[in-house]
Structure formats: structure tokens, C-alpha cells
Amino acid sequence: MRYQESANEVIRLILLNQKTSSELIDWAEEHRQRGDWEGIRKYWKSQFENALRPLDGSDYVEGVGQAYLGAAYYRLGEWEKALDHFQRAEQMFFFENDWYSVGLVHMAQGLVYRAQGDSEKARIVYQQSQQIFSGLVNKCKTLLVMRKANQCAGLCGRLRDMIEQLTTSDSGQGPLHFIPQIGVTTAAGEPLYMPGEDSQNATGKIVLGGTRYQLLSLRERKPRNDFVLSPRDKYFATTVHGDSMIGAKIYHGDLLLVKKQDSWPELREIAVFQEEDSGPMVKIFYKTEDRIYLESANPKYRGRIYDKDSPTLGTIGIVIAILQEAGD
Fold this sequence. Notes:
The chain is of the alpha+beta class. It has two domains: 8-168, Tetratricopeptide repeat domain (Serine Threonine Protein Phosphatase 5, Tetratricopeptide repeat, Alpha Horseshoe); 177-325, Umud Fragment, subunit A (Ribbon). Helix content is 41%, strand content 20%. Strands 1, 2, 3, 4, 5, 6, 7, 8, 9, 10 and 11 form an eleven-stranded mixed sheet that branches. The chain is elongated. The two termini are 12 Å apart.
């Protein structure tokens, strides 16, 4: 597993080892597969606030719930909360004597430290996780549980690679800017979550949910190394749904970097808009003295026309770039 891979993978591996059936876990897993991390955060937070354990009574289910919360906060860029919930999950799995899941959520804590830019803490935690899985390999071989032994050996190898990358991939790199991702897709999610004012500057690359991304220019999709994220502005990322912007080389499933702005864009700028009673949408902005026009970049879709003072339409932000996962 490269360090860029998110805690989403940790949840997947925990569930492959699922020890009990639970409607709580089934609901959360359905939403995880849809990428609805804000919904997952609200769901598990509500369960714990309403005394989950008397309803279920399982340390294992509580551990999975805490791991889900850790992953949700990780994806939303709230590192300290992610770390707190991964640590709580580790405690619950420890009570259940589930060392495989203990190792996984311990590894997830390393992902958080890496996302925060603390390579030394990440390295220590990865090494500790490696020791846990190494011990499980020996135990499983003794018990002749070879499938589990192979799984643990594979995780040892992944962790070894992650530790090596901490040494090689960080050398010569400038500071990286960490921003959160909204969980719902934008048509062409969940309420916008903005980073704090202490976010770092970066040029050409950012980190989102622990993954390093290259900025690509709009309409050309070429690497954009000239843009610097300003600490005075607020940014978020959103995923495109649909094909209405393919003429601008924005495709279904693309991840967009957006600068928060509630005033109208400049003429022909690509922006994210919100229409009352509908979801966010990516469109090209035009205006006249008394009209606002939102155009698609696909001839099969008609443009939208609004009065310039329409109370039903607002700007969410200006699309800055397309985000493409960067290599090591």
C-alpha cells in the first residue's frame, strides 16, 4: 500500500475480516461504497451519541464504527478527529483480541500522521504495525491458518514499501497543501467543509485525503505548476457526475479543485453553482445586463437562463483545476 492510499482501504480490509453481522455496519458499508463520507460521519456520530453499545453490546461493532468515523474525518481533512477515532477503534479491537484489526487501524494512524506531514511519527507507527502483522504471520503459521498468514505477510510487505517511500518520496519536496473533499458529487457534495487558516502553501501539487494530486489546467488538461494556493482563500474538492462539460475536457468522475466564492464569476469562467432545491452543478458563466446564462460544454444539453437578481441561484466557487492523482 502506498502512503497515498486512503483509510478507505483500511475499512475495506477490516470488513473482509468481519466477525459479526450488523445492520449498522451494512448501512455504513453501502454509503462507503457510494463515497458518502459526510453521511457516514453523521450516522456513526449519531449512533454513539445515542448510546450505541447498549443497543448492540459489541466491542467489535463499536470498533468498526470508530474506524468508520476515523476514515470519514480523514477524508474530510480533520486529522486530529481522525486520529482520535482510529485510536478508539484500536482500543475496542484490543478488547476483542482482534489483532488483525488492531494492526489495520494502527496503520491508519500512520496515514494520518503522513497526511499531517509528520513523516517521523508515520514511520514509527508503520514499524509498529509491521511488528503486529509479523507476529500474526508466525502465529497463523503455527495454527496452520495459511490464508490469514499470507494476508498478514502481504501487509508486512506493504508497510515496508510505505516506510521506504517516507525516505525517498519526501526528499526535495516542498510543503503540500491539505484540503478536504466534500462527499457528494457535483452535476456535469454534503455541505462544504473548508480548511483552517493555517493551511500550507504549495505549487503544482496538493494532498487530499492522504493522496497526492497534480493540478491540471482547465480545457487543456495539462500540468499546471504555476498556481499557488493562497492562505487567504478557502478551497474544496468535488467530484463531477455526468457528461455536460466534456467539451471543456471535464469528464464524469473527475475531481475538481474549487476556490470558494459567492460572487458571480468572470465571463466564461467555469464555476460551481447552486440552484435552489437542486444539487451543485458545474457550468460556464455568461451574463448580460439583465440575464445570467449557465452553459454546458456539450451540445445535447440546453443552457439555463436566470434573471440577474434571481434569488434561486448562487455561486459556490470557481473551478481552479482538475486534480489527477500524482505518481510517487
